[in-house]
Design brief:
alpha/beta, TIM Barrel, eight-stranded parallel beta barrel, two-stranded antiparallel sheet, globular
Length: 300
């Protein structure tokens, strides 16, 4: 049994302005020193009513250069906004220069204004995401007869892909194209339902295509406000461990998620930016340390 892997965002959830992002590299280095498994970066090209977001691939490239061990994960990149050939080259380059530490988490997006700004149709984005994922795999593997990427990925076959979304279409996408499903603020009971539906879709896929897909791992991103810290901004949804979280309530919920099959949990901390390092240190002392003990929150 291995322990549940925990990641963390290197800036607070929904930063109000660019200056709150200036400490991203220092926070990522600190996360590595604390023992977190990976850091995450989300993907919005426009400022929204909830804050600003740095470009995920640029952010993770800088973090990869400033660190040596910690994984770098997009959670999530809005896949239909990107040209698949350009993205295949970018992600192959990041995978190679990070020495295989990169994971591509993808979603289809929800903000029509971003699609309008980029000049990409909002409608049909799910189908384009499916087509893009198939093209990425082909290009990473060097199987496109007419194209060779400028740089091949370091990871054989390309970096791992986590497919986000809770709809049936997203779950099918995870079965067909993903190494893992990537949920958002999912609770144990809901995760059990997702696991069951993924199994049903995998069986249907095998019956239709004559071969079973690889097992789809379960991952998730979520939100946590450690005890002694005050949440900034509007409530982001379900909070890991509850609104008045304790080390025990957080560990209990992580244990339930792990028993249900979750293998990786990525944490967003909606706390004031000056308190981010302290919140990360609390999680390392009270949660990571407990998960490292034999028998704690096993994953499957």
């Amino acid at each position: 049994m291995t322990t549940l892997r925990l990641g963390v965002a290197p800036h607070r959830l929904w930063a109000d302005g660019e200056r709150e992002l200036d400490g991203v590299l220092e926070a990522a280095v600190f996360a590595e020193e604390l023992g977190f498994d990976h850091v995450i970066a989300s993907s919005h090209v426009l400022e929204t009513e909830v804050g600003v977001t740095p470009d995920p691939l640029v952010t993770l490239s800088a973090i990869a250069g400033a660190t040596t061990r910690i994984g770098v994960v997009t959670s999530v990149l809005i896949l239909p906004l990107y040209n698949p050939v350009v993205l295949a080259h970018q992600t192959a380059t990041l995978d190679r220069l990070s020495r295989g530490r990169f994971t591509l988490g993808v979603g289809t997006g929800w903000d029509r204004a971003e699609f309008d700004a980029v000049g990409v149709p909002f409608d049909g984005r799910g189908a384009r995401a499916d087509a893009h994922l198939a093209r990425l795999r082909t290009l990473w593997r060097g199987e496109d007869p007419g194209l060779r990427l400028g740089v091949a990925p370091r990871t054989p076959g390309g970096p791992k892909v986590w497919v986000g979304g809770h709809s049936d279409a997203a779950l099918r996408r995870a079965v067909r194209h993903g190494d893992a499903w990537h949920g958002s603020a999912v609770e144990p009971a809901a995760l059990a339902q997702v696991r069951g539906r993924l199994a049903e879709l995998a069986d249907a896929h095998a019956e239709r295509d004559g071969r079973a897909p690889s097992p789809t791992a379960l991952t998730a991103g979520g939100f946590v406000v450690p005890p002694g810290f005050t949440a900034v901004g509007r409530a982001p949804g379900h909070l890991l461990g509850g609104e008045r979280a304790t080390a025990l309530s957080i560990l209990d919920e992580l244990a339930e998620l792990a028993e249900t099959g979750l293998s990786s949990y990525s944490l967003w901390l909606p706390v004031p930016t000056p308190q981010l390092h302290d919140a990360m240190a609390w999680l390392a002392d009270e949660v990571l340390a407990a998960l490292a003990k034999p028998g704690a929150a096993p994953s499957r």
